Amino acid sequence: MSKQKQYDAQNIQVLEGLEPVRKRPGMYIGGTGSEGLHHLIKEIADNCVDEAIAGYATELRITLLDDGGIRVSDNGRGIPVDKMEKTGKSALETVLTVLHAGGKFGGGGYKVSSGLHGVGSSVVNALSTKLTAEIQKDGYIYTQEYEQGKPLTEIKKGSKTTGTGTTITFYPDPTIFKETIDIDYEWVVDYLRHQSYLTKGLRTYVHDQRTDEKYAFYFEGGIQSYVKHLNFGKDTVDEDVFYIEKDVEDCQVEIALQYTDAYTESIKPFANNVLTPDGGTHLTGFRSALTRVINDYARKNGLLKEKEENLTGEDCREGLTAIVLVKLPDPQFEGQTKNKLGNPEIRGYVEQVMTEYLSYYLEEHPAIAKKVVNKAILSARARAAARAARDNVIRKGALDSTSLPGKLADCSSKDPSNSELYIVEGDSAGGSAKSGRDSKTQAILPLRGKVLNVERARLDKLFANNEIKSLITAIGIGIGEQIDIERLRYNRIIIMTDADVDGSHISTLLMTFFFRYMKPILDGGHLYLAKPPLFLIKAGKKKEYAYSDEERDKILEDLVKDKVAKGTKVDKEADISKQAGAEVSRYKGLGEMDADQLWDTTMNPENRVLIKVSIEDAEKADAIFTKLMGTEVELRKNFIQARAKFANTEELDI
Fold first, then answer.
1. pLDDT the model gives residue 262
2. pLDDT tens digits, 167-214
3. If 460 and its partner were Cys, which of 153, 300, 382, 564 is the partner (CB 3.0–4.6 Å)?
4. Is 138 labeled as catalytic in the residue annotation?
5. How many CB atoms are located within 10 Å of the residue 395 CB?
6. What is the pLDDT of residue 401?
C-alpha cells in the first residue's frame, strides 16, 4: 500500500480579498463563456436600474468601446466616496473590492433591489484587466483605477461638475474569458429594452463604437407597452391592456394583461425586475385570483350553467399574455439563479390586488368580460373532448412497446440515454432510413405529408391528427400540463427532412409543435435537425458529399488543384466540373438515397452533421413562431419580402 499523502494545516489555502472570484469565477457569474461575459454588464447595469427604481436615476447608458472596453453609466446619486469606519477605505473602494458590500443590506441605501448578494461590482472588478470608476457627486468628479480588482491609485478629486451619477468602465480579462471577450450588441439592446419596459420613465441608450450603431428606449407605459410588444401580430380580445399598480404594505404590485386569439399562454413573472422563469409565490397568487374572478363572474352573469363544472386555471389562461411585476424589500429567491420567488406574503398581496381590480374591470367592461369567459368555456369544451383521446394516446408505461404506433420502427435498446428517434419525411425516405439505420439505438418514425400547424389549433385538434398522435405516443412524455420529461424514450429526437422548401416547411411545423406543446424537449437539449448532403460528387472512383454550395465548390477546386499538381492539363475555359473531371448530382430528397448513402451521410454518428435546436430567447422564439405560423398573413409577407434577396434560387421549387 502506498504511503498516505500528508494532509495538515499547510494544505489549507486561504484566499483573500477577491482571489476566490478569480480562482472560481463560475461560482459568481455562472461560467466563463459568452453568458458569463455578458453577465458582467448586467451586474453593473443592474445597480444603475436600482437607482432608477429608487427614483434617483432617469438614464442608463451602455457604450461598447472600440478598444474592447464596456462603459456603463447612470445619472443617479453616485457611489459614496467618503471613508468607512469599518473598513478604513472609501465606500467606493469597499464596494469594488469587498464581496458582500453595498447598499442592499439595509441601512436605507435601497428599499428594493434586483441585486441580492452584494457581489456584483466587486466581481466585475476582479474579472477585469482594468476598471475605472468615475463618480459625479457633491459638485466634483472623483476617479479611481483598478487592475484585476486591486486599486492602482487613491481616489482622485477632479474638476467641478453640476451633474451626479456613476460611470464604470471595465475590460474583461481574456485569461478568464478564454472563449470570447466580444460583446454581442443585440444582447445589450435586448437587455436595455427589457429594463425600460420594467422601469417606467427610465431612458436607456446603447452605442456600439465598433460599428457606430445606436439604440435608445423609453416606454411611458412600462409593462403595458411590454404586453403590447409581446402581442404584436396577434389578434387581441380588446385593444386596451388591463393594468394595475398598487402598494400593499411595503411592497408594490404591478400587473398588465391582455387576451389574444392564441391557444397558449405567455405569463412573465418578475421580482424587483428579475425574471423568475419558474414562477413562485407572486405567480401563484396571480393565477389563483384570475381563475377565481373569472369563474365568479361567469356564475354571477349566467355564462356558466349550474350543472357545468368550474373553469380550470388552464382554461382561464388560454390566450393570455401577462406581466406580473412585484417589488419588495427583501426578496427570497430559491437558489443562486433566482429562478423562483419564495416570499409567502407576496401571494396574498397579489391575490388581493388582482381580485379587487380585475373584478371591478370585468363589471365595468361586460363586452370584454363576455369574450374572455366564452374563450375559456370553449377551451374547457375542447379540453373535455381531448380528455378521452388523451388517455388513449399517452403511453401508460414509458418503455412499454405494446402501445407504440404501428409505423414506428423502434430501436432494440431500452436505455433512453443511448437511443434516438428520427422523424422522417415520407414513406420513401422512411424505408431507406429503416434499412440503413443502426437498429440497436436508432428508431425511425415516418410522417405522411405536412403535419398539423399547431399554432392555429387547440389540444383537441392535435389528438384528432394521426401524425401528431403517432409523435406524442412515440416520444412518451405526454403533452400539455401532463408532461413528464422523465418518461422520455429517446435522448435525441432528430428531424430529418429533404433539403428543399417543403422539407424546411415540415421542419418548421414540427419545431412549432415542440415549442408550443413539448417545450421541455427543447429546454433539455433533446431536439436536433439532421443535415443531409445537397450534392454527390463523383470523380473516377472517388466519391464525396457536399452539404452546401460553398462546400461543393471547394471540393471541385481541390480536385482541379490535385490534377494540376500531378501534371494533368485542364481546360480553363471549361466549367469547374469539367476541369475537375467530376460528375455533380444534386439530391432532391432523402428518398433518392439508398440505405447505405443515407447511413454514410446523415445517420452515421461518426460522419453526420446535426444541428441542435435550442431557445436562447423564448420571447423572440414566440414572436417568430407567431409571425411565421400565425394567422397574420401580412407579417409573413413582409418577412419573406425582407429576406427574398438571400434566397438561393437553385433551391426554390418554381
1. 86
2. 999 999 999 999 999 999 999 999 999 999 999 889 999 999 999 999
3. 382
4. no
5. 20
6. 41
What DSSP character marks residue 603? I
Domains along the chain?
19-217 (3.30.565.10), 223-389 (3.30.230.10), 394-532+612-651 (3.40.50.670)
486: annotated active-site residue: no
According to DSSP, the residues that pair with 341 across neighbouring strands are 280, 333
Is residue 449 within 8 Å of residue 462, measured between CB atoms?
no
List the one residue out of 95, 7, 114 whose CA is nearest residue 54: 114
Are 603 and 492 spatial neighbours (Cβ–Cβ below 8 Å)? Answer: no
460 grid coordinates: 383537441
What is the 3 state secondary structure string of 536-547?
A: EEEECCEEEEEC
Q: What is the pLDDT of residue 501?
A: 77
Burial of 320 (0-12, 13-18, 19+ CB in 10 A): buried
In sequence order, the 6+-apart residues with CB closer than 8 A to the CB of 247 are 253
Active site residue 334: no
Residues 6+ apart with CB under 8 A from 108: none
Phi-psi region of 88 (alpha: psi -120 to 50; beta: other; left: phi over 0): left
Interatomic CA distance for residues 270 and 601, integer angstroms: 46
d(CA 295, CA 292): 5
Active-site residue, selected from the candidate residues 59, 173, 318, 425: 425
Active-site annotation holds for 502: yes
Q: What is the pLDDT of residue 211?
A: 96
Q: pLDDT value at position 627?
A: 60
Q: Please identify every stretch of the chain with a pLDDT value under 50, giving residue numbers as ranges.
A: 1-16, 104-107, 116-118, 394-402, 649-654
- Per-residue confidence (pLDDT) for residue 4, from 0 to 100: 47
Catalytic residue among 190, 261, 296, 500: 500
Strand 420-425 with 492-496, pairing: parallel
Query: At 263, phi and psi to the nearest 5?
Result: -110, 5
- Sequence-separated contacts (24+) of 305-310 with Cβ below 8 Å: 309/380
* Catalytic pick among 502, 523, 619, 632: 502
Cα–Cα dist 95/245, whole Å: 33
Give Cβ neighbours of residue 51 (< 8 Å, ≥ 6 apart): 57, 74, 76, 77, 166
Q: Catalytic: which of 59, 410, 420, 498? A: 498
CB contact at 8 A, 222 and 249? no
HSE value, Cβ hemisphere, 13 Å, CA-based, for 402: 3
